[in-house]
Amino acid sequence: MELENKSAIVTGSASGIGLEVALTLAANGGSVTVADRNLSGAEAVVRQITEAGGTARAAEVNVTDKGRVAGMVEGAVAAFGSLDIFVNVAGFGFNSLIVDMAEEDWDLVLDVNLKGQFLGCQAAGRRMIDQGTGGRIVNIASTAANNARYQGGAYCAAKAGVVQLTRVLALELGEFGITVNAVGPGFTETPATVETSDEYRTNFLAQVPAGRSGRPTDIANAVLFLASPLAEYVNGQVIYVDGGYSAGKLTVRG
C-alpha cells in the first residue's frame, strides 16, 4: 500500500471531509490519529477504520490551543513511532456582513481556520525536522481563498491566509524533505453544508462545469495523492477540487 508504515494525523476528522480523509489514508496503509474536539465522534471513526482492518487511534484536540496541539503530535509519535503525514482539516464558517460582524466572531473564524492551521503546521513541522526523514503536510484551503463570497468575509480572509501560509512553509521546510501543499474544495456535500439554502446551492452549481457538488471522497483522493510518494516533487501548490468552478464562470453557449 502507498502509505504503509506511515503515521498520519487528520484534524477535524470526526465528520465530513476530515472523516473521509482519515478513512482513505487508513485504507491505503496509514496509521491514522483521528483528531477532533468531538472525542466520541473521533472514536466512532476509529472503530470504523479498525473494523475494516486498518490502524487508528483517537485524540481530542482544540486546534486553537498550542499545548493541546503539541500533545496531539506527541501522542501520535508515542503510539506509532513517527509523524509522517499531517492534514489540517478542522475549520468552520458562518455568514455575516462585515459591517455587522461582532469582533469575537471574526476572531473565532480566524482562530480556528488560520491560527489552528499555523499551530498544527508548526508542531508537525518541528517533529518532522527532528525526525530527519521528511514528511507531508496538507492544508485544507477553499475556493473562498480566491473567490469573494457575500457575507463570507472572515472565512474568505482565513482561507486566503491558509494559501499563503502553505506557500511560505513550502519554502521554509523544503530543505528538510517536507512538502507542504493545500487542497481547495469547492461546494462539497458534508453535514456542515446540508442546511445550505436551495437558492445558494443552485446559484453555486450553475457555475460548476462538472454540474454537481463535490463529495468528500473527491477531496480525500487529492489529499491521498499529496500525501503519497507520487507527490514527492509537488511543493507549495494548491489543488482546487471544485469541478472547474475556479476556472471561471460558465458562459452561454452559442
UniProtKB/TrEMBL annotation:
Pathway listed: Lipid metabolism; fatty acid biosynthesis
Pfam families attached to this UniProt entry: adh_short_C2 (PF13561)
GO molecular function: oxidoreductase activity, acting on the CH-OH group of donors, NAD or NADP as acceptor
Keywords: Oxidoreductase
Family in the record: Belongs to the short-chain dehydrogenases/reductases (SDR) family.
Protein name per the record: 3-ketoacyl-[acyl-carrier-protein] reductase beta subunit
Organism: Geodia barretti (Barrett's horny sponge)
